[in-house]
Write a structure and sequence with these properties.
26 helices; five-stranded parallel β-sheet; three-stranded antiparallel β-sheet; alpha/beta; elongated
Length: 641
């Protein structure tokens, strides 16, 4: 191994950081601004650049069928900055849209960005990401010794600003804080060009550019947390209106030119939030004591749960604050594939190293999303889940696709309630901690979720509904999935056989509908459509008799519509036929797999087939232990005599 020279590493970092130091006067800073006006940008513009600097992907949903089914024709933008956030694309686009408008000095630059949503939906994580983005941003030029870390251009007198703005190519906003105004007059005799300027980084820990306001006890609210206080120890030395008695260390003071976060903002009394009114619209905050208003340039980011929001907005006396809020809802994820990514990300960030059997995280994610979906009169919950996941679902006996947008119109508040990500993650942690073989599987996952759900403080009808998902809906879906996996393990060319059945079915169905013969690809002989073959597929989903003709017509028409639109045609593109083909394949090997799996004593032929099946399942993601567990489960639950 290459020896690491820690001393060299430290020295290299220190040398690099020395280049970030700057010490000069306003005159030096003016030359810097003239070369690069961007150094004098305001807080919202700085944040907007941080969010977009890593890259933006504009996705054409017409080219990605799954995304088109989820988002329709709307423009979908994904930002590399938010690559670790899943299932909340709309919320992220609204956040970036807010910063874009604010960076252009639109009305949003004088508004509070407010995130609202259920517990565990990602509000705090989004906020932390924005705060950490500031920490990674380049340092800014500030007036040396200024408690507000303010923009050095504030030194330029107002009567000179138009000329300086024309020379520098920037718009100068704001005014000196009381402390710097006093220093300019008394320490530098009004010679503003000599005022020292330095560089300052953003730091959450050091309270540089990032202010945080937690909920405050209503009986002990002190606005000094927001805008600083008067230092009583200096009152004997200076008059009470002297700036030297001010202690500008409130959240708005330290968050100037950066960000101020209000945690669970509406748990505070409204009087405590009045500082927001002037901080947004007038871009100024009150000075402690008898001082004048102080200029403030920063992002105000607040978040809370929906219950607090509803209570706050119901009071008409809060209109002044409500008018200064841009609300962005952060709902729970409703896409199964995206929900799975959330748990895999969290697991990757943990120290757990256990093997996770296929479908384990998927079943847990399925439960979370089912609890978040509103009941529909048009589809059952599981079908709705699949539609929201971007899967193409077609009504049986018809060529009509089920419309995701109609389902969304039925439930406008969908995603704002249900089981949280934290609940599922705690259940996964429990299964991992209790695993004796360093391996977890869907069966153990479902058992743990059932126990955890029974302990929830919920209304009895809601708890019964949740348990119904676990004990009935999800268990049945897992049984179907497991049976397909065992079938695939027996049939190595499962995909090929499914496609072959699909193509044969289409050929014979089209010939039947058009009353023509079909040519044998091997002999060239013209044959009648194989009705028995068509029926053997259709009976898998209960279609027979007169309904069969309508089913074949619907499939033929649907496939031609796909071809005309240039879409791919395979056995998965028409859900009822896909289900019938998979059931046909499963039925053809069910007896063989049942005998081999259930047999305690196998003959040589059975043992060979069983071992081949196990090896195939291991190639598909199972380990020896979970393979043994799920096959025993299959023998006892899927193929009961």
């Amino acid at each position: 191994m290459t020896r690491i020279d820690f001393a060299d590493l430290i020295k290299k970092d220190r040398d690099e950081r020395q280049h970030q130091h700057f010490s000069g006067t306003l005159l030096d800073y003016l030359e810097i601004v003239k070369k690069n006006p961007q150094v004098a940008m305001l807080a919202h513009q700085r944040m907007q650049q941080l969010l977009t600097s890593r890259g933006t992907e504009v996705i054409n949903t017409d080219e990605q069928p799954r995304l088109k089914r989820v988002f329709g024709t709307e423009t979908l933008k994904r930002y590399a900055f938010f690559e670790d956030f899943f299932g909340i694309d709309n919320s992220i686009m609204k956040i970036v849209r807010y910063f874009h408008a604010a960076a252009m000095k639109g009305e949003e630059s004088r508004q509070v960005l407010y995130l609202v949503g259920p517990v565990g939906a990602g509000k705090s994580s989004l906020t932390e990401a924005l705060k950490q983005a500031l920490e990674t941003s380049p340092p800014i030029y500030v007036l040396q010794g200024c408690p507000m870390r303010e923009e050095p251009l504030h030194l330029i007198p107002k009567h000179l600003r138009p000329r300086f703005e024309a020379l520098l190519g920037v718009k100068i906003e704001g005014d000196l804080c009381p402390v710097c105004r006093y220093r300019l007059k008394n320490d530098y005799n009004g010679e503003f060009e000599l005022f020292p300027v330095t560089l300052s980084e953003f730091s959450i820990r050091s309270r540089k550019g990032v202010g945080v306001v937690p909920p405050v006890d209503p009986n002990n609210q002190d606005t000094s947390v927001l805008s600083g206080s008067v230092d009583i120890s200096k009152m004997d030395l200076y008059p009470e209106d002297d700036p030297r008695v001010l202690s500008l260390n409130g959240a708005f003071n330290v968050g100037n030119r950066g960000l101020v976060e209000f945690i669970e903002v509406f748990k505070n009394d409204v009087e405590y939030l009045h500082t927001m009114i002037t901080a947004t619209q007038e871009k100024s905050i009150p000075s402690p004591g008898k001082g004048s208003m102080i200029y403030f340039d920063g992002v105000i980011l607040a978040h809370s749960n929906e219950a607090e929001w509803n209570k706050f907005k119901s009071d008409h006396t809060n209109e002044a604050i409500l008018d200064r809020i841009v609300k962005v809802e952060v709902p729970y994820c409703l896409e199964l594939d995206e929900e799975v990514k959330i748990y895999r990300k969290l697991l990757n960030n943990s120290s757990f190293d256990a093997h996770i059997a296929p479908q384990t995280i998927e079943m847990a994610s399925m439960f979370a999303i089912l609890t978040r979906l509103a009941p529909s009169t048009k589809v059952d919950p599981l079908t709705k889940l699949k539609i929201y996941n971007g899967e193409e679902i077609v009504e049986k006996g018809a060529s009509k696709k089920l419309d995701i947008f109609e389902l969304r119109e039925e439930a406008s508040r969908e995603g704002m309630s249900g089981i949280s990500t934290r609940f599922i993650m705690k259940a996964i942690d429990t299964v991992l901690s209790e695993s004796e073989n360093n391996c977890i599987n869907p069966i153990a996952m479902l058992d743990t979720l059932i126990k955890a759900t029974k302990e929830l403080s919920l209304a009895e009808d809601e708890k019964k509904r949740y348990l119904g998902f676990l004990q009935d809906t999800i268990k049945k879906e897992y049984n179907k999935t497991l049976e397909k996996e065992v079938t695939r393990a027996f049939i190595h060319s499962y995909q090929e056989q499914a496609e072959s059945l699909f193509n044969n079915y289409l050929d014979h169905a089209e010939a039947f509908i058009n009353s023509r013969k079909i040519k044998d690809s091997s002999t060239g002989e013209e044959l009648e459509p194989d009705i028995k073959f068509l029926q053997s597929i259709e009976e898998q989903i209960g279609i027979s008799g007169t309904a069969a003709r309508g089913f074949r017509q619907d499939i033929t028409a649907y496939m031609f519509s796909l071809l005309r639109s240039g879409a791919a045609v395979d056995y998965c593109c028409y859900e009822p036929l896909k289900e019938a083909i998979e059931k046909k394949l499963t039925t053809s090997v069910r007896e063989l797999s049942r005998i081999v799996t259930k047999s305690r004593v196998r003959d040589k032929d059975q043992s060979g087939k069983y071992n081949v099946m196990v090896e195939e399942m291991k190639r598909n993601g199972y380990c020896d232990h979970c393979c043994n567990v799920v096959l025993k489960y299959a023998a006892n639950n899927l193929w009961k005599d």
